[in-house]
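Homework-ish question, so no full write-ups if that breaks the rules, but can someone show me the predicted structure for this set?
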Amino acid sequence: MTEAASRLPVSRLGGPDARTVAKIDLGLSRRYAAERRFRAYGLAAVTIAICFLLVLFGSIVSKGYTAFQQTRVTMMVDFEPSIIAPDGDRSPKAIMSGNAFRFDDLIAASLQKTLEIDPNDEDGLYDALDLLSKGSTPMLRSMIANDPSLIGTKRTVDFYATGDVDAFVKGTIRADVPESQRLIKDKHIVLIDKLKTEGALHLAFNTGLFTNGASTRPETAGVGVALVGSLYMMLVVLVLSLPLGVAGSIYLEEFAPKNRWTDVIEVNINNLAAVPSIVYGLLGLAVFINFAHLPRSASLVGGLVLTLTTLPTIIITTRAALKAVPPSIREAGLGVGASKMQTVFHHVLPLAMPGVLTGTIIGLAHALGETAPLLMIGMKAFIVEYPATPFDPATALPTQIYMWATEPERAFTERTSAAIIVLLAFLLAMNSIAIILRRAFERRW
Amino acid sequence: MGPLWLLALIAGLSFFGFILGHWKSVVLSGKGRSTLAARPGYYGAYVLIWTAMPALLILVALSIARPLLAEHTVRANLPQQVLDNPTQLSLEISGVEQVAAGLKTATPEELENIRIGVVTARSVFAGHGLPLGEDVRPYQLIAASALNLVSDGLDTAVDIAVVAALAFGLIFAFMRVKPRLRARNLVENTVLALLIAASSVAVLTTIGIVLSLLFQALQFFSMVSPINFYFGTVWDPRFAAAGSTESGQFGFLPLFWGTIYISFFAMLVAVPIGLFSAVYMAEYATSKVRSIAKPLIEVLAGIPTIVYGFFALTTVGPLIRDYVAVPLGLGTSGNNVITAGLVMGIMIIPYVSSLSDDIITAVPRSLRDGSLALGATRSETMRQVIMPAALPGVVGAVLLAMSRAIGETMIVVLAAGVAARASLNPFAEMTTITVKIVNQLTGDLEFTSPQTLVAFALGITLFVITLGLNVLALTIVRKYREQYE
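A: Not a homework solution, just the prediction itself:
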């Protein structure tokens, strides 16, 4: 452009002649068009990126929101003593042992009554039993074991319907598909409709999703146990990485002399932040499990590995927060006779604390969603019981999602999306807290 | 006492020490406190450090030494023919550990019965809720009782050592508390040492990664030659039964090709979108649009990768299969390179855009103003002045994003497939280095078979590749920044 401008023929009056002006005008419109195009590309790129985000959220939410409700069948159960405790022993131990089929009989009896099935119609009864989750028997059994005073009474009990019935009621399995390609057969539909008219079948909030552990049956599977595992890991990460990260950054930012060793540490931290997380998993497997013989699948080991993955992030943000505290604070502290250490711990660190906490929360949020390293240390396990301590085998929310994502059953897709919604809700909450903290305490010096 | 009790004891006594030190310094100084060399809290902290530090160090050192000593004991008590079979050794050792755990549950009479051979150890253990896979062999019993003897002795030794250290530290420091003791300097020096230790954790982590990966990878390379590994074109590890010597083929090239091919598609998505949105954000967007759109794009980087994986598996994969791959006759699988690449590309958009945005805004204002003053349009300024100046930094950003793509695991585990093949068809199933690391390490682990150890060889290769890219990118970015500072 500069070259072109210098070569313009100049008229005697000092301006370019008419032909040149026309030429420039012609070029100008082309250049403005290019400008508009370039700008449109930019806008398109931003729009596409945001659209991807919306599509991602939209697809997960639309697949998963139905899982927060679940189909239940409410029936009057007659806790008949002669069936439950044929030998008269009503202790929880006696109820938990012995023939499990006797609880099936209880359920069958109440189904028979609710649906008014002819007692001689065995096939009809079996079809009706198909509607209820196979988890109903153990559920009823532990219910009685927990409260033996139920024996001899009549009470309404909420049973889970199977995942397929649930999908049918929610409309995921459609009735207009030919029967041979449908998981719910016509005879079942008749029974479902009957239950609906009786008022026994209804949708209720799915509390089991938040309280249950792993299960092979989608209707009784939940993220409760995984949530506890994740919570333990977050505690370990918080307890270890906050002090370690803050202490390390204080040294590097406030005390470290500029020499080769601190250079090495600096470069190291920057590179560690970009090491693939799966490599940390391999480290954890080789060091914590194979060498130190810590228990496999324990949330303690998961927490240790995640501490190492989040430490670089926390150090980088903490150093930025410390750097943002103006030197005048330090000089004032030293000026009134405080030692270097006192200046840092009494003045600089408290002023940097909001930034440090923000960084820590964001680091924790990253750790919460981390999956690959946990697979390496065996936190991909079928765990039904809540882990009592961080040393017990546990799963985590993201590994639970991974396991469900690879299940072929349709009802698990819904559950997986719901678990992802729970995970994203946690991340959103953590990031919001970080942003609020930053807004509330941020200082402009 | 268990380690938790010891820790509680240490914490309690240290707190007690703090109070003692504080109290003594106050008493000694009298009313004015002007005679003290430091404030009373520092004397308290001084006693606290002396109480806790030696005890903690001893506890940590012995906890590290314990498993090593235990394993040594087991080895020393195993017969020679067992020791001669290295592939079975780790199994044998864990077997002995199980027997040792079982022996601890047995009552004295039962132990006597086992010794004289009236009952088998297996049945006794099963009665205590510890079922064993096979009968207990006599040498296992010998090794297990030796192990129990040593570990009981070690437990007592740890208890005694920790309690002694606590008592010694507390008394020693308490005796030394005098008004003239420069407690603040001593405490501050200790704190400084702790700070230095904390900052070197990062270096220790790197060393740990390199050493642990290298150690296991070298074991693998002693079974499979590095040339066969790095230049092999067939990946067929053949999960063999434990202890079997038959090993498959471990060709790295198909995995490498899959990784590169998927990353290539990811970059194809992420670089144009990321770069153009960075340009738009830096040059055109009003501050209001910027304040909304920039965080929204960055949300993409905060979403866990497992979520992207699930999205690829259930939404993108079937879409591409049904509407592109099948009509074109190129493939029938929902798991393919395009799906994984596309979704991974979405994930790394913010890595490209954020860093590029920073770099573009870091180009000195004078360059931009000069160009605009000469009559160039904004896009001309961007393309012909700012971009050439920012190019090295942008290249650095792209390299960093690339290293993310190569090391990404969960998306490819769920969306790329497991078939190791090198083909040009982007609708074919392919696999990556990270997928194979996950595959080889699921299920029962046998740390002596090449099928498991290959994961560490893959891991160290991945580490070296990503590290190389990072170092290159960071050097470029740093050089670029220095140019304008």
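Now go work out the reasoning yourself. Hint: Chain A has 19 helices and three strands.
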